[in-house]
C-alpha cells in the first residue's frame, strides 16, 4: 500500500511545562480534505507549525509520502511538496498578479533565477501561469499590482502561488478569516477544486462549522494538544464526546 501523503507520529511540542501538541499521530491520504477543529488554544496552528517546520518538535516524527522530514527546515519541506498557504514569503507586492504567478511557476520548474527575462522562451510555463490565473479566477486582474489587490484577491493569489508549487499536501489555516461574505465562496470553491484533483491531501484548520460540513471528508478534533476525535464530519460533530468536551464549540455546532 502507498504511504499516506502526510503523517505525524507521536508529534509533541512542549513550551516549558505546557504541552501544546501532545503525541499526535494522524495520517492524511491523497484525495481527501480533512478539517482540523478544536477550541482556541487547542494546538491546531502549533501542529501545523510542527508539520511545516516553522517550529521544531520536542519529539515525534513528520513523514511526507513516507519520507521522514522531521529534521528538515521549512524551505526543504516546501520543496518536497508540503504547501502551506498564507505563510508564503514569495509574494512580490510591486509586481503584477501575472508576474507573481509566472515567477512561482518558473521557480518550481527550476528555470533559474533569471526570472522574467526567460519567459519568452518558455511557452509551456507561460501557459501554465495563465491556467493557474484562470483556475483562481484572477485572469481579470492579471495586470494589477499584488499590493493593490483587495484582501480576498490577495488570498486567491496566495493560493495561485501555492498551486504553482504543485505540492502534494496543501495546508490552509482559516483561509476565509477576515474575508467579506461575498469573497468566501470563491476561496472555498478553489479549495474544493483542489480536492477534486484527487492526488493531493488537503488539511484545513477551520472554525466555521458550516465550512467544515460542506468541504470536509473527515474531521479531526484537537483538545489541549491531543487528538480526541477523528472521523466523518456528521459522526464527529454529533458525537457526545465532542459536544461534551467542547462547551465553547457547542454554539457553533448548533449553528
Ligand atoms: N511559541 C510558543 N510559546 C509558548 N506557548 C505557545 C507558543 N505557541 C503556541 N503556544 C501555546 O500553545 C497552545 C496552542 O496554541 P495554538 O495557537 O496552536 O492553538 P489553536 O488551536 O491554533 O488556537 P486558535 O484556534 O485560537 O488559533 C496555546 O496555549 C498557546 O498559548
TrEMBL record:
Keywords on record: ATP-binding, Nucleotide-binding, Transport
ABC transporter domain segment(s): 6-249
Record Pfam families: ABC_tran, BCA_ABC_TP_C
SMART domains: AAA (SM00382)
Single GO term (MF): ATP binding
Entry superkingdom: Bacteria
Name of this chain's protein: ABC transporter ATP-binding protein
Taxonomic lineage: Bacteria, Pseudomonadati, Pseudomonadota, Alphaproteobacteria, Hyphomicrobiales
Amino acid at each position: 500500500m502507498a504511504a499516506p501523503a502526510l503523517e505525524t507520529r507521536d508529534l509533541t511540542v512542549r513550551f516549558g511545562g505546557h504541552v501544546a501538541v501532545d503525541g499526535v499521530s494522524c495520517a492524511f491520504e491523497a484525495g481527501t480534505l480533512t478539517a482540523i477543529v478544536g477550541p482556541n488554544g487547542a494546538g491546531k496552528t502549533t501542529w501545523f507549525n510542527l508539520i511545516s517546520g516553522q517550529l521544531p518538535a520536542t519529539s515525534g516524527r513528520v513523514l511526507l509520502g513516507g519520507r521522514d522530514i522531521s529534521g528538515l527546515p521549512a524551505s526543504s519541506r516546501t520543496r518536497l511538496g508540503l504547501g502551506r498557504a498564507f505563510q508564503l514569503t514569495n509574494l512580490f507586492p510591486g509586481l503584477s498578479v501575472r508576474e507573481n504567478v509566472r515567477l512561482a511557476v518558473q521557480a518550481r520548474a527550476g528555470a533559474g533565477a533569471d526570472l522574467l527575462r526567460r519567459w519568452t522562451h518558455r511557452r509551456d510555463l507561460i501557459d501554465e501561469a495563465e491556467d493557474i490565473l484562470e483556475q483562481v479566477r484572477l485572469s481579470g486582474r492579471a495586470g494589477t499590482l499584488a499590493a493593490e489587490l483587495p484582501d480576498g484577491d490577495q488570498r486567491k493569489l496566495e493560493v495561485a502561488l501555492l498551486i504553482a508549487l504543485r505540492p502534494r499536501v496543501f495546508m490552509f489555516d482559516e483561509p476565509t478569516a477576515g474575508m467579506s461574505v461575498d469573497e468566501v465562496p470563491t476561496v472555498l470553491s478553489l479549495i474544493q477544486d483542489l480536492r477534486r484533483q484527487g492526488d493531493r491531501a488537503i488539511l484545513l484548520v477551520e472554525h466555521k462549522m458550516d465550512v467544515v460540513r460542506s468541504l470536509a471528508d473527515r474531521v479531526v478534533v484537537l483538545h489541549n494538544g491531543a487528538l480526541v476525535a477523528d472521523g466523518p464530519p456528521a459522526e464527529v460533530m454529533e458525537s457526545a464526546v465532542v459536544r461534551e468536551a467542547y462547551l465553547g464549540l457547542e454554539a457553533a455546532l448548533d449553528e
